[in-house]
Amino acid sequence: MEKGKREFLTVLEDVLGNYGFSPIIAWALRFFLRNPYESLIVVNRKGEIEFMDRGSEKFFELPQGGAKGVKITELVRDSVFPKVLETGIPVIGRIFNVKGVRKISSTYPLIKDGEVIGAIGHLILRSLEEVERINKEMSRLKNQVRSLRERERDQYRAVYTFENILGVSTAIKDTVQLAKKVAMIDTDVLIIGESGTGKELFAQAIHNFRNPESPFVRVNAPAIPFELAESELFGYEKGAFTGASHTGKPGKFELAHNGTIFIDEISSLPLSIQAKLLRVLQEREVERLGSTKVKRLNFRMIAASNVDLKKAVKEGKFRQDLYYRIAKAVIYIPPLRERKEDIPVYVDHFLEAINKQFGTRFKRLSHEAFLCFMNYDWPGNVRELINVLEQAILKTWEGEEIPLSSLPSELTGSSSGDGFHSNAFKKEIKEKEKELILQALRKTQGNKRKAALLLGMPRSTLYKKLKEYSIEI
After folding, report:
1. CA 77, CA 417: separation in Å to the nearest integer?
2. CA-CA 20 to 30 A from 302: which of 192, 353, 364, 456?
3. Which strand (E) or helix (H) includes residue 424?
């Protein structure tokens, strides 16, 4: 039988070759007839088996060629072969049980000159359990893809809005209003501000004001190695350089298509990259490293810098033409030392956030610690204020009030950092406290309730301080 089958396949290959079919067709038919993964059964008009693949013969415990002439119903009692032979209608995707194994099959009539001369049955899979296994695997892969897409979406999503920008000072309110106006215009933006003032916070708020669902791609310019700057920003084709991915890689600008790209500390980019960046901004198209094709892009660029870019231009460290290209809309974020009335707002907000993180219950700073906060220049701005609060809470750990002794020495002026303060320092604190109370009263036109709120202290404490410093209203 096996010898005859081999001879038949050889003859079939020759015949197909004579009719102009390529060798691959013959090999495809050979594979179809001898497919070890799926079953094939052919019956004649009487329902007698003419051909059964070797795998099915083994399943039915038949010797090689032993299925020839056997009625299909003797092997599969509820076989659909008789129905297909009688009606000439195929039965596709039927599930049936053979020897305790669920299988799924399709059966088709063989029609010649309008008459059914036989039928062919094809087991799509060896068992329904295999279908279920594949379905489970497909479900797992779908969940994995969904998770990866969600992770990618979160990676390129802006979180903060203008509601997250805190402050009661005129300076910060004016800055927010300007940023909202800029957000409504399709133009690139330059944000200037010292380290820790919240430049990315403003960038995300500008992005979310109009297009919250579009990508927001961050680029930390100082963190990009010099030799990788071009490929990171503009992407590369496969084989562009040694170690390049064999599939190529899109750059940050491509990822920001129809969204926003935020380049933090743009002055750190090499001059050679600045030249290419200028062209990308002017033409709104990008050319990958190792490619000759350009891709049209739609994006808004928000650049940020903590250095004076005009000074950098004069020193030859930043391209003048690029500066004027990105400085169409400039937003300046004032440092914390220029808007100290925002400090109580930040203290209350971040105390609550840190309490949730650490599981503590601090409600306020002591009056001495509060005055110390108000008297400090905060070179690290809001980021430094958060850090100081975290240090103080970890040092105090229990209670509702953070004492002066828990603050770091750079705030208190103590070199030892053990909580000891000289009489001169205490006198300076009292003078500063009196000055702040007078300022609050002037701003509120003598309204003690509003003054207490502005100072972040209970009204009863304010009355005590007014009496202590002989302040009359």
Report:
1. 92
2. 353
3. helix 423-443
The predicted-structure confidence for 266-285, as pLDDT tens digits, reads as follows 999 999 899 999 999 999 99
**Rounded-to-integer distance, Cα 120 and Cα 91, Å:** 11
Let me know: does 420 contact 453? Beta carbons within 8 Å: no
Q: What are the two backbone dihedrals, phi and then psi, of residue 362, each rounded to the nearest 5 degrees?
A: -75, 135
Q: With a cut of 70, say whether residue 257 has pLDDT above it.
A: yes
**3-state secondary structure (DSSP) of residue 195:** coil
How many residues comprise the chain? Answer: 473
Please give the DSSP secondary-structure letter assigned to residue 247.
Answer: T
Cβ neighbours of 303 (radius 10 Å): 29
CA atoms within 13 A on the CB side of 248: 14
Alpha-carbon distance values, 276 to 61, 151, 170, 255, 452 (Å) = 73, 30, 39, 17, 55
Q: CA 132, CA 99: separation in Å to the nearest integer?
A: 19
How far apart, in whole angstroms, are the C-alpha atoms of residue 222 and residue 266?
Answer: 8
137 sits in which H/E element: helix 128-155
Domains assigned to the chain: 2-129 (3.30.450.20), 162-334 (3.40.50.300), 338-468 (1.10.8.60)
**Per-residue tokens: 155:** 């990676």
The conformation of residue 342, written as its DSSP 8-state character, comes to G
* Contact indicator for 382, 346 with CB cutoff of 8 Å: yes
pLDDT at position 299 = 94
The residue to which tokens 């079919």 are assigned: 21
262 φψ region: left (φ > 0), alpha (ψ -120 to 50), beta (else): beta
Mean pLDDT is lowest, of 71-80, 145-154, 376-385, for 145-154
pLDDT in tens, 155-211: 778 889 999 999 999 999 999 999 999 999 989 999 999 999 999 999 999 999 988
Give alpha helix (H) positions in 301-380: 309-314, 320-326, 343-358, 367-375
User: Using 50, 70 and 90 to split pLDDT, how confident is the model at 290?
Assistant: confident
Question: Up-side HSE of residue 136: CA atoms within 13 Å toward CB?
Answer: 6
DSSP state of 236: B
**Both structure tokens of 106:** 């399709």
Evaluated on CA atoms 333, 334, 337, 340, the torsion sign reads negative
